[in-house]
Every structure is written in C-alpha cells, then in structure tokens.
C-alpha cells in the first residue's frame, strides 16, 4: 500500500523518533481508557477520582480504584502496538514518552521510556519522604506508612506537578526529534499535550494514530484513523 510505504520511508529516514502515548495504546490489552464510555468505574467519573482532593475525601475509595487497576494491569500483556515500538527501538533512535502508568511499554521490551504520570507499582507517603514499589496487596485500606501517615499511589493527579526531572528530559527529546508519533491520547491533559508543540518547533513531522478525532488532529501532518495494535506493526513490517 502506497500510504504505508511512505510512512515506512519516514520512519526509515528519521534520525530520532519520539512516541507520545496515552491510554488508547493499552486499550487493546484490556485496560480501559479515561474518557468516553470507558471512563467510568463503579459509576464514578475517573477524572474526578484522579485528584488529590478525591483522595483526601475518601482514600479508601481511591485505593480500591488503584487496587483494581493494578490487578488488571498485572494480568495484562502488551499488544502488537507496544511490541512494534519495542521492535523499532532495536534499529532506530526511539524514545517513548508515556502518560500511562501500566508499564506495558517496558513489558514489551522498550528500554527508553519516560513515565510522565508515575507508575502503578510505585507508592509514597503523603507526609514523609518514604517511597517504595508494591507487588502484592496491602492488608489494610488505606495503607499506612511507618510514620503513621497515609500512603498514596505515586502517580500524578490533577493539580500536581509532573516529576520535574522526567518532564525536563521529555521536553529535550521532543525538541530534538524529527518524527513524533502520537498514539492513543486525547491530548486534553496538559502539560503532556504540549509535547507535539515542542516537536513542531523543530519542524518534526507529526503523525497521530487514533480511531477518533483529538484536540490536535488538525495540527498533524498525517492522521491514521485506526487502532494502535492495527496501525503500528505496519511501521516495522
Ligand atoms: C485509541 C484506542 C486504540 C481508544 N488505539 N487509540 C484547572 C484546574 C486545575 C488544573 C488545570 C485546570 N485547567 C488545566 C489544568 C491542568 C491539568 C489539565 O490538563 N486539566 C485538563 C483536563 C483541563 N493538568 C494537570 O493538573 C497536570 N499538572 C499540571 O498541569 O501541573 C501544573 C499545575 C499545578 C497546579 C495547578 C495547575 C497546574 C497533571 C495532570 C495529571 C493527569 N493525571 C492522570 C491520572 C494519572 C494516574 C492514573 O493513571 O491513575 O493521567 S488523569 C488521566 O488523563 C491520566 C492520563 O495519563 C491522562 C491523559 O489521558 P489519555 O491517555 O489521553 O486518555 P484518554 O482516555 O483521554 O484518551 C484515550 C484516547 O485513546 C482517545 O483519544 C481514544 O480515541 C483513543 N483510543 N482506543 C488507539 N485501540
Ligand atoms: Zn511516612
């Protein structure tokens, strides 16, 4: 197919490729997205649960949400989309900037992954500087730190800053790339949705892979209206 030949050429000729990924890339691994019909959990709006206020109002409820998601994520496998990106990393300069906390890029074999919004396995204390990784469930909800304060998932909620070192590094990669491929994100959440703007400043080509229109579809050089597990393998085949 001619269209895919030209994409393959773009990929082959690119000096540095940056992927910006969101929940949609893991949808075909059975992990729900945040918005649209998927964005409900027990009738709660996922967007309202992903805030520090929701956590302090009802930490038990927010922990139940993360516990369920952690179970789902641990039993999930990377799909053809994650695998294609990992494959591409073997023969091109590829960095993945992900908003996802599910670790599926790494599980697929990607090694250059920056997690902008934290990770489902990480926890930290709401008061002291304790942090850790969890592989099994806590016996108590909400779990408590040795200092007596409540532990929280080490993820980035609305109104919170992204980890500054990770964010600064992400901007550098976005500034340097000549091809940015934006996959499975609605691009409504800042500051992650500014990454394509940094790339554009370097005259990078922007490709979007998403079955639906997004906030920035009109800014893209090319839009592929397909799912990521269908579209991404074409980039490496
Ligand atoms: C497929 C597919 C398939 C489906 N294949 N595609 C007013 C008050 C306070 C703050 C703000 C405000 N106005 C703006 C802000 C800033 C705020 C923000 O952007 N809000 C907007 C919603 C308006 N941002 C922040 O607060 C950020 N911090 C910040 O700005 O710090 C500075 C600051 C400090 C203090 C005050 C104000 C600013 C932090 C944002 C943190 C976002 N956190 C979450 C939760 C992470 C942890 C967790 O996972 O639980 O991150 S929310 C959620 O949204 C999650 C996601 O990473 C993120 C993005 O969602 P994503 O990935 O795009 O998913 P969806 O569901 O939206 O889209 C899926 C897409 O996939 C769709 O397009 C589908 O079509 C597509 N798709 N199947 C390919 N098979
Ligand atoms: Zn503590």
Automatic annotation (TrEMBL):
Compartments, record wording: Cytoplasm
UniProt free text on domains: 2 residues (Tyr-66 and Arg-69) present in a large hydrophobic pocket are probably involved in substrate specificity. They are important for desuccinylation activity, but dispensable for deacetylation activity.
EC number, as in UniProt: 2.3.1.286
Binding site residues for Zn(2+): 125, 128, 145, 147
Annotated organism of origin: Nitrosopumilus maritimus (strain SCM1)
Gene that this polypeptide is encoded by: cobB
Keyword Transcription: yes
Annotated binding of substrate, by residue: 66, 69
The protein's name in its UniProt record: NAD-dependent protein deacylase
InterPro entries linked: DHS-like_NAD/FAD-binding_dom (IPR029035), NAD-dep_sirtuin_deacylases (IPR050134), Sirtuin (IPR003000), Sirtuin_cat_small_dom_sf (IPR026591), Sirtuin_class_III (IPR027546), Ssirtuin_cat_dom (IPR026590)
Active site: 117
Domain Deacetylase sirtuin-type: 1-237
NCBIfam families from the UniProt entry: PRK00481.1-3 (NF001753)
